[in-house]
Design brief:
The chain has 498 residues and is α+β, with helices and mostly antiparallel strands. It contains nine helices and 26 strands. The protein is globular, with a radius of gyration of 26 Å. The protein folds into two domains: 237 residues, no CATH class; 230 residues, no CATH class. The strands form nine sheets. The protein has a six-stranded antiparallel beta sheet. It has a four-stranded antiparallel beta sheet with strand order 5-9-1-10.
């Protein structure tokens, strides 16, 4: 045994304190935590624990979501890490990079810094009723707005209300205590619903919220606390005993004021003017052929996937009309993402995040019988009678739906270009507000038309409120009408850089 091996045990991480953090994570919208297997009952199945069969949220998924959120808060959207330990996110979660002292050598060594935060896997506790949702999806052709051949799929989702107990362990030394406030920032992202999990999290899936925390700290230089640490048992996050909100106060830290993220956000309330139909299969033999989509608890919903698809299509038409094909396509691809059909690895994610919304106060129990007609004879096709159960608007009290949308600004993006993107979204909002952009299926027969009631717009802390008066005109209580016109002007004057 070499001398180095004899003294290796002395090369510890000098841990002075261990902090155990437990949280109760509750899904707020349907969520897909996939297993990558396409040979199951559904095209896209859920990841489950092989022993218990419970849905599994892996520690790697939790860590990746926390790390990404902390990096965005510290550095801004679209900024990568340097793998040199210069950023707080690298100091907390570790990194792998070339040793600076060996850069330029023929075989540079790799400096691997381990994470100070340990994250456990979490097994989900499903709701007692309707724990799993099965939803259909289809990819649309951007030009024809029709389904692509072979692009229909079904996906298995965990229902809202599923609970995951989260458990973390943080090691602190005398030198790295500056990481604690930044860990609080990352965990606060779960507390404030700013972190989404799983597949299609930018289209309404995967919203989650930690409803309570429990923190236990053990000093490693105190014998009694070391014994308490050895006997420590993780609490049951399914119970409310001992769990509190506000992770920052539980950790007794003051959060840094800096937040490098920049974004435009809109929250708009519409009323349904006619009817709305997002087609779904109820799975019951005596139900109509087509019913409106409902979630696991029976609420009628407007899914983020449908809403984002309609917004993208209209944004593309507006951009190409105003700026031509090249500029318009560049705008839309930069905002909503793109992928190369010939190379699946060549893709870019969407910077537009859309949430799933509940349709409030609809008439949902009326059934329409319809028949397909032969355009040549004017008669009915044989066997073409079908029934539908869409949502209808009420007259005595409005049937409302809320749109929540966020556009992220890349840290390296030109301000004028981002203002043009905001202007494009405002023009789409105008079309939704006036009923010119219907949503859902069968828009050609009058379904899906909305009318705007109120809107709250926010850009980097500046808020603008829009409301509709009794005579149908728009009101701006906080001002801002000229500011909104300025965004559209930025779109009109935008030019593509060489």
């Amino acid at each position: 045994m070499t001398q180095n091996e004899k003294t290796k045990w002395k090369q510890s991480r000098q841990v002075r304190e261990r902090i155990f953090i437990s949280g109760k994570l509750v899904l707020q919208s349907p969520t897909h935590l996939g297993n990558g297997d396409t040979s199951g009952v559904t095209d896209i199945g859920l990841l489950r624990d092989e022993v218990s069969g419970a849905p599994l949220l892996t520690g790697t998924s939790i860590t990746g979501a926390l790390r990404n959120y902390m990096r965005e808060v510290e550095l801004g959207y679209g900024v990568g890490e340097q793998a040199k330990g210069g950023h707080m996110v690298e100091k907390l979660f570790g990194y792998v990079g070339e040793d600076v002292a060996d850069v330029g050598k023929q075989n540079p060594s790799i400096a691997s810094i381990e994470s100070w935060l340990m994250v456990d896997d979490a097994l989900g506790d499903l709701p007692k009723t309707n724990p799993i949702e099965i939803r259909d999806g289809v990819a649309l052709d951007a030009d024809t707005r029709t389904a692509k051949d072979g692009a229909k799929y079904d996906i298995e989702l965990l229902a809202a209300g599923t609970i995951f107990p989260l458990h973390f362990e943080l090691w602190l030394t005398e030198e790295n205590r500056e990481m604690l406030p930044w860990l609080a920032i990352a965990l606060q992202g779960l507390e404030n619903e700013h972190i989404h999990l799983g597949m299609r999290k930018r289209r309404g899936y995967g919203r989650c919220k930690v409803t309570g925390w429990q923190v236990n700290r053990f000093a490693m230089n105190d014998v009694a606390q070391v014994v308490a640490w050895l006997n420590y048992q993780m609490p049951d996050a399914k119970k409310a005993d001992g769990f509190q909100s506000n992770i920052a106060s539980l950790l007794n830290v003051s959060l840094p004021d800096s937040d490098a993220r920049e974004f435009f956000q809109m929250k708009v309330t519409f009323k349904l003017v006619s009817s709305l139909l997002i087609r779904a299969d109820s799975g019951k033999a005596d139900d109509p052929d087509m019913v409106h989509l409902k979630n696991a608890v029976g609420k009628s919903v407007l899914p983020g996937t449908s809403l984002a698809g309609s917004i993208r299509a209209r944004a593309g038409r507006i951009a190409r009309t105003l700026k031509g094909g090249d500029v318009g396509d560049e705008l839309v691809k930069g905002m909503f993402g793109w992928h190369d059909e010939d190379d699946s690895d060549n893709a870019s994610g969407s910077r537009v995040l859309v949430q799933e919304s509940i349709v409030e106060n609809p008439i949902a129990n009326l059934v329409q019988n319809r028949v397909k007609l032969d355009r040549f004879t004017g008669g009915a096709y044989p066997g073409a009678l079908f029934s539908q159960q869409p949502l209808f608007a009420r007259t005595e009290a409005p049937t409302t739906v809320e749109l929540k949308l966020l556009l992220r600004k890349l840290a390296t993006m030109d301000d004028d270009w981002f203002r043009a993107e905001v202007g494009l979204l405002l023009l789409v909002l105008k079309d939704l507000w006036t009923g010119d952009l219907p949503l859902g299926g069968e828009r050609s027969v009058g379904r899906g038309r909305l009318e705007g009631l109120s809107a709250d717009l926010c850009l980097n802390g500046r808020s603008i409120t829009i409301s509709t008066t009794k005579d149908g005109t728009l009101s701006f209580p906080d001002g801002g009408a000229q500011e909104l016109e300025g965004f559209v002007t930025a779109l009109n004057s935008l030019e593509v850089s060489a």
